[in-house]
Design a protein that fits this description.
The chain is of the alpha+beta class and 119 residues long. It contains 5 helices and 2 strands.
Length: 119
């Protein structure tokens, strides 16, 4: 997080970016706070996809967008990522949780062959 704050210091000072530490299942933010939310490689650590998705829906403004970047279960399995630390998720599982939380338009893309940062 400190590295992100340093890298985007100009955006933070200008009020265009903000970084916080917290639990996705209990975001310390008012309803309808953001137009956009981005989270990369965090869904593995969510205690509850349903609760996290509901919180994202709550803090997004109507028509807001959320982008979740993560590796699907098969990829995590091939990398031998320890399942006692990382919850290996299927894209359909994440999409279902977001849809159940009220996300209207959902798109899923395979970016496995592209370098990180090319969302």
């Amino acid at each position: 997080m400190n590295a992100a704050c340093r890298r985007f210091a100009d955006a933070v000072r200008a009020g265009r970016a903000e970084f916080r530490v917290g639990l996705v299942e209990d975001l310390p933010l008012p309803d309808s706070t953001f137009h956009k939310a981005l989270s990369v490689h965090t869904v593995y650590f969510w205690q509850s996809l349903r609760a996290g998705s509901a919180e994202l829906a709550r803090v997004l403004k109507p028509g807001g967008r959320v982008v979740l970047g993560f590796l699907p279960k098969a990829h995590m399995d091939r990398m031998n990522m320890p399942a006692d630390i990382f919850t290996h998720r299927e894209p359909d599982e994440v999409i279902a949780a977001l849809r159940d939380a009220g996300s209207a338009t959902l798109k899923c893309g395979d970016r496995a062959r592209k370098p990180h940062g090319s969302l």
